[in-house]
Design goal:
9% strand; 9 helices; alpha/beta; 46% helix; 293 residues
Length: 293
């Protein structure tokens, strides 16, 4: 009688030892044992509190075991242990593959569009780190720079203005510096008064405007005609002659005798820029240097 020959089992090659996989295996095994212990502890506590439920669960488990035996299936603890170990090993390898897989590169964020003003022009934003250390001196310099830009004075070419425009420009300077009741009265029959105004302290200022070229200076005859009317006719508290050029020596001498303030082209620019004295703050009127200087 021939004896059937059993086919040899395939020889399984031993798996190469990997430290990461082994570590994950034992970690998952520890977690599984912890869960089993927690379930057992919970079941024991429930059995102490509700014995009836524990007896019922035990009967159900016994019935399941008997039914399995009747169907010809043996419950083997070793088989269950092998299945649990195989499942745990498979989960470990899956976790290792996931960790080894390269992570996808993040997509670059779209660049923010520059803000557009109402006129359709692009505007530039200055980004400042609020946590960056700032020196107190630098902060003061930055504020001063912003103020200089915001309060920029418009330069006026007085020589390019006609006489009427020049009188209006002098009136605008008086308004800027706090004068009230400013009026342009120049014209035929003005008797030397082109601009009249009230200073902040209430004095009446009478200004004669002479828009001359550099080669044409204000002479003593012009000064005498104005000096004959500024105080007696216009009752000025402060009489001023403003020119875009200069004054002759005799004109300055007569003005000093009559108390007339002379503002030449250089002093006019200083007055405009706010670095020179205002005509009604002249030192011989106040008895002291101008506070602006």
């Amino acid at each position: 009688m021939a004896v059937p020959v059993r086919a040899p089992r395939p020889v399984r090659r031993p798996r190469r030892f990997e430290l990461r996989a082994t570590a994950l295996y034992f970690v998952l095994l520890a977690v599984l044992l912890t869960l089993v212990g927690t379930v057992a502890r919970t079941a024991a506590a429930a059995a102490e509190r509700r014995p009836a439920w524990a007896v019922a669960l035990a009967l159900v488990a016994a019935g399941a075991v008997v039914a399995g035996c009747r169907r010809g299936r043996r419950i083997s603890a070793a088989r269950l242990a092998r299945r649990a170990a195989a499942a745990l090993d498979e989960a470990t390898m899956t976790a290792v593959e996931v960790l080894d897989a390269p992570s996808p590169a993040p997509s670059p964020a779209p660049a923010p569009e520059p803000p557009v003003g109402g006129d359709g022009t692009e505007r530039t934003l200055l980004l400042v780190d609020p946590f960056a250390p700032v020196d107190a001196v630098d902060a003061v310099d930055a504020v001063d720079a912003v103020d200089e830009v915001a309060v920029e004075t418009e330069e006026i070419a007085y020589e390019a203005l006609d006489p009427d425009e020049f009188e209006q420009a002098i009136a605008d300077l008086c308004r800027r510096d706090g004068c009230r009741d400013v009026d342009v009265v120049g014209g035929a029959g003005d008797l030397g008064a082109d601009v009249v105004a009230r200073t902040p302290d209430g004095r009446l200022v009478v200004v004669q405007c002479k828009r001359y070229s550099d080669a044409n200076r204000v002479g003593s005859q012009d000064m005498q005609r104005f000096g004959g009317t500024c105080y007696t006719v216009h009752e000025a508290d402060v009489a001023v002659v403003v020119t875009t050029s200069d004054f002759t020596g005799p004109a300055l001498e007569y003005a000093g005798q009559c108390g007339i303030v002379c503002v030449d082209g250089r002093e006019l620019l200083r007055w405009q820029d706010g670095v020179g004295p205002r005509p009604w703050e002249h030192e011989f009127l106040t008895g002291q240097e101008s506070p602006i200087e």
